[in-house]
Design goal:
Layout: H1 3-8, E1 16-17, E2 20-21, H2 37-52, H3 54-57, H4 60-71, H5 77-93, H6 95-105, H7 108-126, H8 133-160, H9 167-219, H10 245-261, H11 263-275, H12 285-307, H13 309-330, H14 334-362, H15 368-392, H16 403-427
Helix pairs in contact: 2-8, 2-9, 4-5, 4-11, 5-8, 5-15, 6-8, 7-8, 7-9, 8-9, 9-12, 10-14, 10-15, 10-16, 11-12, 12-13, 12-14, 13-14, 13-16, 15-16
Length: about 425
């Protein structure tokens, strides 16, 4: 059995999603039961949690544009971007801890705490004063990012407990929740903002989130609460994987790619507002990217299993970079920008779906979770600084002012793709072989 075949059947302790990892935290002799009504209800519950947490993070482009234009208009775009990237970083850093708590104690208290905390953060944000950036930073960046981390990771873990052969399918379905949230929340926000205002828009979203968490808690089943053995914190992360050149080079490539990956998600709405101020497409570019990323996640996972995951990951990352450097950089018309959003969403969805499984191909099964934790801890740094750096490159409120930002995003993705291809060559110089 080759590495890709071994990695294609994640164990319940070994699956991962971009921005969060499922780590090995507990030893259990209990055999995994495959599927069933309780299992698929748990997957639905995990989708709801992902929709209500990661979906809000994927909606940050709406907040970025609104803050730049109105609520925090005197604040630099790079500073605003730090609010969103802090959420991603916190979920990466806290993934191992929240997954371990789920293995030991189940999901009940974690879902209750994460649901109340996430809704509470939105309520706190609704009372923030315009122009006071530290209030937004504390409520939306720090509090929301921290509490979401204790919902996202356990949602993956508890879904994974029910599957072995169909693990990839189950994880793919859960991941769709984040893109669905990133597609539907901005549409809801755009409809509600002019009618009830920013504060009440957030309160409506808070009620929606608490309802989703409540339904998820009711229909989800944790199979092994309290039966695992919570390891020491040091064992949750294994940095010995960096001694493997393939792992080390892949992490460097992913680090560079993540510098640019989220830039269109954060800034394409603001770009559209400036370049095409009279278009009816305001507020719809972010849902468009997230919607097409769902297709990319599903097709990417299917093709990755048949063609090789890294064989597909680095070329589509390279295409993402070229899309930025051609279609977005020059964008001669609104229709070209719409086409860019669709194609970029599709390719970025493949990146999100395949990166964790590529990492799993390199890691030994017994250390997979801990090494994924170390991998994403390193990558989290680029997730934190990538879009703020891009925001700092905005040179003016016109099309030319965004050229530095777009070139930076495309360049980072191209460099990341080429470095990841180096990891593929280190494994096997025959690029046509499945891996």
């Amino acid at each position: 059995m080759d590495a890709s075949e071994t990695a294609s059947s994640f164990s319940a302790k070994e699956a991962s999603e971009t921005g969060s990892t499922i780590c090995i935290h507990a030893e259990s002799s209990e055999p995994a039961q495959e599927g069933g009504r309780a299992a698929w209800l748990t997957v639905v519950g995990s989708v709801l949690v992902y929709y209500s947490s990661f979906g809000i993070i994927n909606s940050f482009g709406f907040f970025q544009a609104y803050y730049q234009q109105d609520f925090l208009k005197d604040t630099a775009p790079s500073t605003i971007a730090f609010i969103g990237t802090l959420q991603i970083m916190l979920m990466n850093v806290l993934a191992s801890v929240s997954g371990a708590l789920c293995d030991e104690y189940g999901i009940t208290y974690l879902y209750i705490g994460s649901g109340i905390g996430t809704s509470g953060a939105l309520l706190a944000l609704s009372f923030s004063r315009p122009g006071v950036v530290w209030q937004v930073f504390l409520s939306q960046g720090l509090l929301m990012g921290f509490t979401m981390a204790f919902g996202v990771q356990p949602a993956l873990t508890v879904a994974g407990q029910h599957f072995k052969r169909q693990m990839a399918l189950a994880m793919g379905i859960v991941a769709v929740g984040s893109a669905a949230g990133g597609m539907l929340f901005p549409i809801m926000f755009r409809k509600l903002l002019p009618v009830i205002g920013f504060a009440w828009m957030l309160r409506v979203a808070a009620v929606k989130i608490i309802l989703c968490y409540a339904i998820a808690l009711y229909i989800s089943t944790s199979k092994r609460p309290g039966k695992g053995r919570l390891t020491s914190f040091r064992k949750l992360l294994d940095f010995k994987g960096f001694l493997d050149p393939r792992y080390a080079v892949l992490s460097i490539g992913a680090w560079f790619a993540q510098l640019g990956l989220w830039v269109p998600y954060y800034y394409i709405e603001g770009y559209c507002n400036i370049v095409y101020p009279d278009t009816h497409m305001h507020g719809f570019f972010l849902p468009l990217i997230n919607g097409t990323s769902i297709v990319g996640m599903i097709i990417g996972g299917f093709l990755g299993d048949h063609l090789g995951r890294l064989n597909l990951l680095y070329p589509t990352t390279l295409v993402s970079g070229f899309l930025c450097l051609t279609m977005w950089l020059f964008a001669p018309s609104l229709s070209i920008l719409i086409l860019f959003a669709c194609l970029y969403g599709f390719c970025s969805g493949i990146f999100v779906a395949l990166l964790p499984s590529v990492v799993s191909q390199i890691c030994p099964a017994e250390r997979m979770g801990a090494r994924m934790g170390a991998f994403y801890l390193v990558v989290a740094v680029s997730s934190l600084i990538g879009t703020p750096i891009a925001g700092a490159l905005i040179a003016g409120k016109d099309k030319q002012g965004y050229q530095g930002l777009i070139s930076y995003a495309g360049g980072a993705l191209v460099v990341g793709a080429l470095v990841m291809m180096g990891s593929r060559l280190l494994h096997d110089r025959n690029l046509g072989r499945k891996w």
